[in-house]
Fold this sequence. Notes:
Elements: E1 9-13, H1 20-30, E2 35-38, H2 40-45, E3 58-63, H3 74-91, E4 95-98, H4 103-117, H5 121-124, H6 130-133, H7 139-142, H8 145-155
Parallel strand pairs: 1-2, 1-3, 3-4
Helix pairs in contact: 1-4
Amino acid sequence: MAPDPLAAVVxxxxxxxxxxxxxxxxxxxxxxxYTVLNASPEWxxxxxPRALPVSGRHCWLLCGLDLECPAPxxxxxxxxxxxxxxxxxxxxxxxxxxxxxTPQQRLAQALQAIDAVAPCEATALHRASAASQRxxxxxxxxxxxxxxxxxxxxxxx
Length: 157
């Protein structure tokens, strides 16, 4: 089967214990027409690949460090995260952060990020409605974490 010219390539990056591997598997299952790559091993071994994609529908995702990490490995995790961020910045790539305490939350955030770059039927299901993005009268006192996440995610767009 020939590659779909409208399909995107999703590059997932993440430090150890960031959930990058699980997110790759979940994205590959949810977006069978898209190419999902766990770019972390290649990028952590050395510098990023020399031939970075400059055209087409490419989406770069970086997994946040909100998942539990064993204390002895936290230093390495933070160093890897800093290295990945520095390499993305040096390469001039725009990337989206993916957070969430459960695989479902991370997948939903990733699909929403991909939808902004390479929309398809599967990602459109995770598109925030205009009504959910409006500021509500009691926003300052609500303290709803999902609401705050939506609000701050919308600011990054």
